[in-house]
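INFO  loader      accepted 1 record
INFO  loader      residues=634
INFO  predictor   begin
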Amino acid sequence: MKSTLLASALVAALAGVGASAIRADDAPAVPAPQDVAFNGTLKLTVDATDVDHRIFRVKETIPAQPGPLVLLFPEWIPGHHSPTGPIDQFAGLVVTAGGKRLEWVRDKYNVYAFRVDVPAGASSVDVEFQTLTPQDPRQGRVVMTPDIVNVQWNQVSLYPAGYNADRIPIDASVKLPAGFQYGSALEQAGKDGDTVTFKTIDYDNLVDSPVFAGRYFKRVDLDPNGRSPVHLNIVADSAKALEIKPEALEAHRNLVKQMDKLYGARHYNHYDFLLALTEKLGGIGLEHHRSSENSASPNYFTEWDKSWLGRDLLSHEYNHSWDGKYRRGADLATPNFNVPMGDSLLWVYEGQTQFWGNVVAARSGLLSQDQARDLLAFVAATYDKGRPGLSWRNIQDTTNDPTIAQRRPLSYRNYQMSEDYYSGGQMVWLDVDTKLRELTKNKRSLDDFAKAFFGMKDGDWKVNPYTFEDVASTLNGIAPYDWATYLRDRIDGHKGDLEGIERGGWKLVYNDKPSDVVKAAEGRRHYTDLTYSAGFAVSSKGSISDVLWDGPAFKAGLSPGMTVVAVNNKEFDGDTLKDAVTAAKTDKAPIELLVKNFDTYKTIKIDYHEGLKYPHLERDKGKPDWLSELYKAK
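INFO  predictor   done
INFO  writer      dumping tokens
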């Protein structure tokens, strides 16, 4: 494309605006990032006090030279693996230089890029805007409540195009609501009233260092006298939620110890878990190099014996400090936040992290071995019977899903598939672990791969990219084998991978007794799960949330979005539905559901007679119990 920068006077004549305006359709391409130092330091101030309106108010000073300047709003967000920067929340942009307003124009082909012509004599531009955060979950993730504020710097800053993000220094500060305390990987330079100023850092690491702040706050040392500080920073909806039982504290401290034993090296100078115990702030589990954003129910600590479902979240996000942040796929290690990411190795980044998140949670006591096995059975069933989409897609192709679906609801997720590199990848890595054990007579395992691949250079936290060939080569160094073919067969194949469970000394079975995982999931999510029997799941209010593609319910005509009103002429509830499925095992009559579809009622007859089915793992005593060995604390 050939384009020419218009002279200021011509712009004014054509556009009828000040002499500093630029026309996007005649502008050159957005400057590509270069590995050169930015001349100067950005100054960013964020006012996070307007929790009533849920608005961040931003002021920023950006050093600049006279001439064209392109400012970028981050688009490709690490951890999201997708172009999800919330540009729709960006509002009120005003750019000035020397007190005079400069007109800006959005790039014609890139809505995240803003063009400004910096006038002669100016050495910087001042930027003001607001981030209008969601008022309701339907608009997006809620990040401001009366008691909690979550500052994600990519949502409240612009940065200059033409430079790698890690070559742009920035001084950031945030004004918090009165009485709020905060947690962050950022290091404090000073505090004036409710305004916190952080030490100078590069823009890449600023975006990687969010803030959790709250009225109810507790900071807990998870590694007393350790070689580098590790803290748990908790914000909550109430003071009561901050009460931590000794056994809960011990499990979180064990998490740090078990990760040390797994990897050896640490790739941070200090680490901060950010944990929100809330029903108001939007849910999150997002990794960063020296911190992680996590959320859980308010009863996470206060009902420790009951709140175990999902307790592998912190182990998952902490694992990402090694797998995903320190080491990441070469096509994902982009120079700034507006260069498209390549997600081809997410089955390592997320898949192996899903594997270790479950394993290390068991090793540390966040989960019991029985709970970890129940969770694994739940995942295994998904790839045994619950992913008919494997007939046309594979795990590798789902690494495109962050861009394809961006976690929007799907009509038939089990057939469309979405981000199966997580749990499907977990099953592949369990397969690899047990294959390593088989090849070496149980002398080597995936623990050895973890230390070799992620555990080098203690203290280094500069991104260390890798390729598929690096993965296969490292495995080959542990146990010689054709690992490239082995991995590709499983990542590119069209069947679920259960070999790790079977080789590990267990079998996947189904019976009519719901596991503790199923009970906990049904209780928390208020639904009835008949996926592996009649082939659907339904909420406590009768809303059909999922129908297994080509399963009994699907073939009978049931679809997501319908509402079950009655079961065999009785008013619907979950127990009545389960009773009907059980009765049909000895009754040849089909299960009759009266359903509502928009404003139409109809009877659907499901010809299913095999009773309730729930997944479990059963010990195969003819094989060594490598799975229990895997879950055992080191």
